[in-house]
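Risk register update: the risk that structure generation would not scale has been downgraded. Supporting records follow, first protein first.
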Amino acid sequence: MTDARLVTSNPALSLAVRLKMDVESSSNPYCWDSLFQLQACTGEAIIFFLNGETYLGPSCCQAIRVIEHDCWPEMLGSLGFTTEEGDILKGFCDAKAHSSPPTLPSIKPNKLIP
């Protein structure tokens, strides 16, 4: 005879809460949207490591930042990235978000002599 597992009505143990699917249990209501965006940009992340191309699109970096900071940091591992690769992606995207655009040098017009 096999034992059946009891389903509890405790909301703290519900699947929706554990997966942060409802707004009350999630610090960021965009966790699932970010996960789907990350799935869409996985190719960019693979090329980032395979070819050494240091470009990840803004939406890809946004998804990585949301997932790593607010949702499920271990999610990148479930997509096939090592912890170190996840840390590299997070670091790259964090640095990209905090970098300011380069300032243009000020150019003073030459004084015209009549």
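Supporting record for the second protein:
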Amino acid sequence: MVLDRLFLLLFSIACFTGTITILLQAPTLYDTRQAIDLQYRPTNIT
């Protein structure tokens, strides 16, 4: 019974850290270039 809870805790921690690691590797988080729609927007929109 105690081992089941231990394995559940270890599995939950592994899933959580894996998810966070994958999400933090997204290239858009580290891309400092200006967005395309802001680069080519006309200056006088009426």
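Residues 2-39 form one domain. On this basis the risk owner (M.S.) recommends closing the item.
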